[in-house]
Amino acid sequence: MTGTTVFLFGLAVGSFLNVLIHRLPRGENFVSGRSKCSNCHTVLRWFDLVPLFSFIFLKGRCRYCRERVSGRYLFVEILTGCLFLALFFLRRPDSFYGYLDLSFWLFASSLLLVLAFIDLDYLIIFDKILLVLVLITFLYQVFGKYVVQLEPAIVGGTFNINHNLLTAFLSGLVFLLIFWVTRGKGIGLGDVKLIFVLGFLFGFPGILIVVYLSLFAGTIWGLALILFFGASMKSRIAFGFVLVNSAIIFILFNQFLTTKFTPYIIRLYL
Ligand SMILES: [Zn+2]
After folding, report:
1. How many Cβ atoms are within 10 Å of 12's Cβ, its own excluded?
2. Neighbours of ion ligand 1 (CB under 5 A)
3. pLDDT averaged over the chain?
């Protein structure tokens, strides 16, 4: 499998993620529903929907009414393509199980992208996506531990369901406490569910690194909003969005992040 194939596959997946991001919050059917132009409502044909190429060929406009198509669609496609390419080259699978492991992380990060963009638009963490994420993580853990006895791809993580479940409950509990203490002003209930799922996905210390990354990114985002965009201390940032993106960064660079930061983080607690 070459990088080009992986990138094209990522573009195609990204195009489907766009459909999910657009339709899930509206309660629309994402399997049978036909894609329409949001301006003239013409049902789009397959050649209007070829990832990347249709956008370039039509110069980012609808073929029928010439209305501008949001650049977001193109952005999500290219982002997914690049993400798939990066994961492929960082993991360099060389066996059937290597590819299976890569497929899992491609699937998981695709779901995380959908969560991120829905949260950015609506400030909600979409429950159904979280459920699918929990389910595939469970299967991945069981399969890795009992069927193939894989070396876990996440450094420091193990194929130990009990360990990951405990991490999930503890992280969820900490976030639930923050939710109660701040009366939902600091984080939402969606973020509590999200951290539970991420804890289950990454185990310890992975989840701690994800939280640190999020606090760092969230602080910078908040400061930038206040300094450059005149936002007040009260304006909300989509913390779920930050959390999910930190999770994707952790999936990409966990080897580096875990070996670099775990000793430092552990020292904070000793
Ligand atoms: Zn149109």
Report:
1. 17
2. 37, 39-40, 62, 64-65
3. 86
